[in-house]
Write a structure and sequence with these properties.
This protein is an all-alpha fold and 66 residues long. The chain has two helices and no strands.
């Protein structure tokens, strides 16, 4: 995924995570506030750290492999 797309997705996840955490806090669930914020931060960090999954292409296979 290109870096500019990752940046936009990161901002959207941070905004939605904050708004949802704020909503949980105002409804009296302060424990879920931290869980939601932690999950949002984890998703953002994981998107930047871990590479995308990709399969082998036919031309990348070693000779004799099917």
């Amino acid at each position: 995924m290109p870096n500019d797309v990752k940046a936009v997705v990161s901002v959207i996840v941070a905004l939605v995570g904050y708004l949802f955490a704020r909503w949980e806090s105002t409804s009296g669930r302060d424990d879920l506030y931290w869980l939601v914020l932690g999950t949002a931060v984890f998703m953002i960090v994981a998107m930047w750290v871990f590479p995308e999954a990709g399969g082998k292409k036919a031309r990348d296979k070693a000779p004799g492999e099917k």
